[in-house]
Amino acid sequence: MRHTWLKPATALALVFAAQSAAALDEAPMLAEQVAAGTLPPVEERLPENPRVIDVANSIGQYGGTWHRAFKGPSDRWGPTKLMEERVLRAVMDADQNISYVPGWVESYAANEDSTVFTFTLRKGHRWSDGAPVTTRDVKFWYDDVFNNREIMPAVPALYTAAGEPMALEIVDDHTFTVTFAAPYPLFLTVLAKESTGKPGLDRPGFIEPFHYLKDFHPTYADEAKLAAVMEKHGAKKWTDLWDSKGQIQAWWFNPDMPVLTAWRVATPPPADTVVMERNPYYYGVDAEGNQLPYIDRVEHRLFQDTEALNLMVVQGEIDLQQRHLNANDFTLFKENEAAGDYEVVTWTKASTWTIYPNLNTPDETLRALFDDKRVREALNIAIDRETINELSFSGLGEARQAGPVSGSPFFDAELEKAGTVWDPDRANALLDEAGLTERDSDGFRLRPDGKRLTLVIETRHNPLLSVLELVQADWAEIGVEALVRNLDRTLVQQHVETGEFELVLDNFDRSSIITADPVRFLGRYGFAHNYFKWWSSAGNNGVEPPADHPIRDIWAAWEAAQSAGSLDEANAHAQDMVSVFRDNLWTIGLIGETPAIFVKSNEVENFPAGLIDDDALRGIGLAQAAQFYFKQD
Amino acid sequence: MTDTNVTDMDKTQVIDTARPITLMWWRFKQHKLALWSLYLIGFLYFVAAFAEFLAPYDPFKHSKLHAYVPPQQVHLFHEGSFVGPFIYGLDRKRDPETARLIFSEDTAKVLPIKLFHRGDSYHFWGLWETDLHLFGIEGGRRDRLYLLGSDSLGRDLLSRLIYGGRVTLSVGLIGVFFSFVIGITLGSIAGLVGGRVDAAIQRVAEFVRSIPTIPLWLGLAAALPIHWDPIFVYLLITVILALIGWTNLARVVRGHFMTIRNQDFVLAAQLSGAKPKRVVTRHMLPSMTSYVIAAVTLAIPEMILGETSLSFLGLGLRPPVVSWGVLLQDAQNLRSIALAPWLLAPGAAIVATILAFNFLGDGLRDAADPYQK
């Protein structure tokens, strides 16, 4: 692991920025407002110690509108990931080394045994409406949001240690501490991905604009006024105004909601074009003291069908976008680069397309077969992954098993190749060995109960049906009949959440910084969802696995990581977790590390190529969208 | 029936005494477009029936090396000498920049097309196993013939089109048939008998029409066992659609029957002692054949294009099932149009079939009233 508290270069830059505070510069559109007297000068808008964001290539130029597309009011993740703010953020250098830097806090530190974490706010930092950011906002979040059981029915496990939720203490106007009942070295890693509560801008975590939201919280608000607001928005309970879909707290719907982000919404959905404008109080600058972001506006155009988006791309109407673009269309995009005046830039996806055999399937005979490692191995090695890569991924992916991707600190070369060597003969031998020797007249094997060995693979990923058709053909060679079923997203989700399916094809994602979110390894939404539920609810829900079931080993490894005394120790336990996963071969990984396709206008600068696209690293956010700029003539 | 030696006098007598069905056939034959459409439809059904033999390959057999092969050209002359129909072998390259596959002809490799070729084995109509195909090419195991090109998995599009026609032209049309039988039967009973029977049938029709369909499909999607064959599920859906869709036709038939049941020709038939069944089938229904035929021919294309419309619930046809609707859906994207336009071939097949059904209907309608001048 190469985690460092603060990269030396960034630390130097911080000092440099503090010294050059006099040389601050701002966008022409803001300078006009300052000249007109409607906005305070830039020195008063920025904190004393602004965050210096490293540019990818060069210091940028102000101006321009970034055009991209979105799929509807519920598609807020695209805009969110461009600009969400965290307590601390992951950054990646050219050698794909991942490190963490402070986000909207000035600094953070942990005590020796990782039980007390101290955070300091930036002096002079302001919300997008100009109000100062203080620990009052943090206290408000903790007392009235985090500990309000109406908004947060339960404390997420990620914010507890030894079963106790975190405790927050305000030291002064700019300092607060978080204390855990037991060591929690992974807390900061988790924060970089999740913040507190739910991820995203909607609940930035640790901080909510008290001066604005107090009018909508029953603890502080005038009852009659609150009732009037609720009526205006058609809310039945006051909590309906809150949360990611609430008309008040969700930045995406409410242009008045103060934010800390580089842009804020100006025309909210449901508009055909959602517009975001620069936040004049954004706390980030480049190394020369220019206030970020460089780009004035971001416009998200509504589209219904992926084909409509593809058409926008080839006609050059998209400036920069990855979301909703499919790797299948790589050739199409590439061939139209000149016509659309754009460039296809690729990152690597930290995920593997994987078939999950369900260890919780209701069919007992089948469950016993899936519990047999020989059967799982046979199903794995019967698949010719090279052909799948060639035909369904234009040879752009990599045949591999589900697990940490290359570049991840937890990468395991042996796991990557486990079960991926195509060997139908050995697969046949393994199934014979597992007792599946009888066959019916069509050449398919019979299960111990005399029925044909038929496996239903379901998926919601339409473009991947061709993959399953190839798997179907490969499994037929070893006498296993696969039935491919393409179902609606909600139906598949329902099957997965209740454990009522046989096999499902889905993405094994979150595979770079696995300590930020290891649920894929622990069985959630995959090979043992009901067991996972049992474990994560401390036995209240789900299904208890047999006492000697190996899935208990992987949970033990993660529990050890969570309660380790130091980060190194925690990471070592996480590595053990990967080893347990490797030895059991619970999944049927197919093709992974496929390219994430970005379409980038030739006008857009400072967009780096070759980074890792992972939820834990916040997708496109890893490239720090505030420092992208348009070449101006 | 007709004799080439009959005189004009005889001919008039023949016309006067011929049965209506004979007259209709004579009249139909005069509509050349309709006649050709009938031949085309007959041909399509023949192809669908003998799909295994007529298709050169197994429609599910993929080929790692042959994704997106454009339609191959059939040659007759190699280096100036006649060798009969043959194709050249394929050279395959991948563009390192765009990842596009580029195929070119390898003119050193001559692969003759042979009739009654032995290729992929199949169970003919589920009866016996054989590997005889109408045609195929001689060559190595990896050489294949793609007259209409191949799809993303290197499967022969012609074979898929032939097999797809089997599903589309059979399962898809059963629903249409059902809905018309039910609609005409109930509509004519209501129109003829009237009174309480009519009232009862009308109320049932209204009830059926008021059932909201989306929740019905949602319920079905959740209730149907996932193991069931998608084609069978689709058949079930078309039958359910028929059980809902008969009401429109029943209404029209009923209204028409009410207007004509007191007309002279019906009364004449009744007074001549014809039984109700004969009155309906021989006198009343034929007077509205043109409407029925037009409605049927319009319903068929709707059904073909609607094959995939419920697939978002997992109820319509979806891959790996092969049908024309599924094949066309595969081609409905920018990628296919730009990189593999031959995948739109199923569209041509659908257009041809729909036109053929329409012309056939047109001819039938004209022929249905042979006494009309």
Automatic annotation (TrEMBL), chain A:
Q: Work out whether the entry's keyword set contains rRNA-binding.
A: no
Asked whether the keyword Signal is assigned, the reply is: yes
What Gene3D superfamilies does this protein's entry cite? Dipeptide-binding Protein, Domain 3, Periplasmic binding protein-like II
**Where does the UniProt annotation place the signal sequence?**
1-23
Residues covered by the Solute-binding protein family domain: 100-509
Query: What Pfam families does the database record attribute to this sequence?
Result: SBP_bac_5
Q: Which UniProt keyword terms apply here?
A: Signal
Q: What family does the database annotate?
A: Belongs to the bacterial solute-binding protein 5 family.
- Return the protein name: Putative ABC transporter-binding protein
What species is this protein from?
A: Pelagimonas phthalicica
TrEMBL record, chain B:
Domain of life the protein comes from = Bacteria
| This protein's UniProt keywords | Membrane, Transmembrane, Transmembrane helix, Transport
Question: One Pfam family, short name please?
Answer: BPD_transp_1
| Cellular localization per UniProt | Cell membrane
Q: Does the keyword Transport apply?
A: yes
Q: Which GO terms describe its cellular component?
A: plasma membrane
What SUPFAM superfamilies does the database record attribute to this sequence?
MetI-like
Question: What protein family is recorded?
Answer: Belongs to the binding-protein-dependent transport system permease family.
- PANTHER family noted in UniProt: OLIGOPEPTIDE ABC TRANSPORTER, PERMEASE PROTEIN, OPPC IN A BINDING PROTEIN-DEPENDENT TRANSPORT SYSTEM
- Name-wise, this protein is Oligopeptide transport system permease protein OppC
Species name = Pelagimonas phthalicica
The gene name on file is: oppC_1
